[in-house]
Amino acid sequence: MATTETKNTTEHVEGANDLTESLTVARQEDAADHKISKLDAFKKDKRAVLWCLFIVWTSLLVSFESNASGNVIGIPQFRQDFGSFFNGDFVLDAKWQSAFTAAPTASFAIGALTCGSISDTIGRKYTVMGGILGSFVTITMEMVATTNGLFFAGKFLNGFVVGLLAAVSPTYLGEIVPLALRGLLTAMIAFAYALGPLTAAIIVNSTGTKTNAWAYRAVFCAQYGFCVIAAIFAPFMPESPWWLVSKGRDEKALKSIRSLGCNTDIEALRKLAVIKVTLEEVRRETDGATYMECFRVSNLRRTMISIAPLTIQALGGVIFIAGYFVYYAQLAGYSSAASFTLYVIFQIMSMAGNVASWFVIDRVGRRNLTMYGTAALMVLLMLAGGLATAGQKPAIKGVISMMMIYAFVYNSTIGATGYTILTEIATSRLRVKTIAIGIALQNIIYMVLGFVLPYLFNPNYLNLGAKISFIFGGFSVLSIAYLYFNQPETTGRSYEELDSMFAAKVPARMFKEYITEVNMEISADTKGEDAI
Rounded to two decimals, what is the model's pTM? Predict the structure, then answer.
């Protein structure tokens, strides 16, 4: 028995070229992947799952840094060291305050866009390693800074570095994640984006009252912890087999597939066949792998569908809800300490919402969870705007309640599905560039809103307060209409299936029922098993 298996394995290895070029083999492997349950996928692909979790860990670097600057500006000792004395208190000059918050957002977008070319040239692994190394350098600049100029340089460069990581991390995860676990593990990126702010807020609350530089340096020092753990494991991460195949390095791709948990040569060769067939089909549809190719007629639909949820996130008011929560809690009569406690609860609600998404993202589906989640957020925004119009403290407390519920609903719906859709709908050959465009566009919107919101909100300007929710509610109405007509259901679809469905121009609302050749393969196998 063992001799026969060894002989078969040898024959398969010798016939690798024929096997990897076989469309039939690719579809058989694709059909087999569809039959695996989540639990079986965890058992079978443990190493791939662990590397996916490692990539989620690197996303903590992104979320922590993105929130650290906003937190340290509120620390009195930071304003004393980097600001000036005015009217009995230390204040940070408006130009530096804007620079410390807006400039990293801009460099984040630049880093994300640059990642497309860098990652396609040197690979996913070395891009991640470069991002981690860059984080050490830029965090050190922030740590030792005693002037506004050096601190700004550190923030600006760190924004670029985490922009790289923000684009390459979901790309790598999407290329190695088992099909059965794709929804769950890509949604965990959003969990990291909720955990980072909570960690930063807890540290600031613990050290922010100190009367020396460690009041704010402790925040940056904590980032070393994330970096050190990431740096320990990064050199051992397997390179993406999808990237290796795209560069014609099939032998290294096979080695990478084995490193990700394939137990036999046959299984590794079959997975390689899936990658080669999928990339070849995409290559027929695309002329190259440039950013312009993302907007070519044959790819434009996929690009728009991929990046739309992140854009809808930005236009749905999340930056207002999260950014003005503490201020509104204080308007409602809560003390500073109580306001912070409520903010911690707010972040816990966010994480609880994301955990809830793990159990529904495949059961309910990407389309329904995104569309109905946006509809629920629209209702909450309108209710918050209505309560804000009343202007009384009980009504303001009602606004706080709506914000709390918003945090849970957002993270259990579009807050989680946005990264899943971004990762799985993008064309395999253009995945990293499509993800970069989505992340960059979202951060550009955040940057614009960061400048505009104070003028809409503050009493000395338009003084809209939480009535701003009506504006975001209006955007949500438009978003729901877009999602209804354009968002396809992609749950359980392999990359090969998605490529064939988009090539066939299947309407968005027919994706769920559409029968692909892989579905027919599964049906044939099932009938054969029943006959036996």
Answer: 0.87
